[in-house]
Amino acid sequence: MCDVQEEMIPKPKNNRSLKEGFCYKCKTEKPDLHVRNSDFCKSCFIDSTIHRFRNNLMKIQKGNVLLALSGGPSSMCLLDLMSNFNSVDPVNKRQPKYPNVHVCHVDVSLAVPQIETDIVDKLKADVERRNFAFSSVKVQELFGNSTTVIAKDDKTILLDVSEDASPESRLIKSLDSVSSLSSREDLLNIYIKKSIINQAIAKDCNIILFGDNSTLLAIKTIALSAKGRGVVLADEIALEHIITPGDKNISVVKPLRDILGKEVAFYNQFKDLKPFNNANLTTGLKKDCSIDRMTSDFIIGLDEEFPSTVSTITRTAFKIKAKEHSNLACSLCDAPLDEVSKFAEIMGEEVKKQTWKDGELPINHVLCYACRNISRDLKKTLEKKSLSGSLPGFVSRAAMKEQIQDYLIE
Ligand SMILES: [Zn+2]
Ligand SMILES: [Zn+2]
């Protein structure tokens, strides 16, 4: 399969013009686009994209698939490629590798009002036309105890809000309680990811497909490093990594990892796929409003002048391997957690002498470095007492207690 990929994607330095003025691949058609330093006709380009997608999915085991669909360009491309991958071959009638595909949309319109109100109906119609099952969950459902799959026990939930606070008001309060837009983006991304994982558990899916393309992964590489989330970088950009929510093994896969953002746009244009959602928290704001937005503008701008930018970043980043890390997980984002004492060193606190009474559990000691930055952002705007009130139910009291057990006064 590697041969196919190398054959379909010419290396950037080989500016091969085997027959000038014609498609690099078939050498008979006039080219429709120039990408990766070569000219392609529409048909050869679509074949190349399908081959790269198939090549990646063939490396993954069989199972029940949950496809995460935001409605943005990359996820619409993912949906179409999956639909193509799953279609029964009319010649040999071979059955699809993944007969059970569930498409899940997380509705974030409460947090991002620019998103069109009828997006769920449009996505549902598009997905069902392709004979996939569809569900949509509102991101604020994460704040309602009944839908929190990971922390089922109400007693373990640390929330200092009145019982009658609605999930809607709790989500808005949570996002409003951080002062920087970068923290707000991080929180919303964590909530979206958590919602998708909860759906995968609820729908009994052991594979989750995300639509991150090569350009998005290059942006992620720089942005995660800048935000102190380097510990998850290797997993976040890998073709496949395993997560274990609630002792269930789920494989998280990014089959568009070798396809550039520009190629996604061409594919969508040629296949007449219309993205339903291009809005996010930074839509309409200045370029320097958040780390993610700034990084995105920087990488995309640089790539226009130097077209090897994305592939240089990703080729280097794909070599990164995560060091052995702790089994403890951050209560907010699930990233591996450093030891409490290590945290304390970074923070300049004398943790070994410090103890807490049950009931005064320090939330910072169960958060990873980057989430601690978010919590410091929370502290600026909230009374210390209600700090945890802005976090959803999965930041559990039981998990916190277990992780700092050695420092508690019985
Ligand atoms: Zn061609
Ligand atoms: Zn974290």
From TrEMBL:
Coiled coil: none
Domain of life: Eukaryota
InterPro entries on file: CTU2, Rossmann-like_a/b/a_fold
Subcellular location: Cytoplasm
Keyword Zinc found: no
Stated role: Plays a central role in 2-thiolation of mcm(5)S(2)U at tRNA wobble positions of tRNA(Lys), tRNA(Glu) and tRNA(Gln). May act by forming a heterodimer with NCS6 that ligates sulfur from thiocarboxylated URM1 onto the uridine of tRNAs at wobble position. Prior mcm(5) tRNA modification by the elongator complex is required for 2-thiolation. May also be involved in protein urmylation.
Stated name of the protein: Cytoplasmic tRNA 2-thiolation protein 2
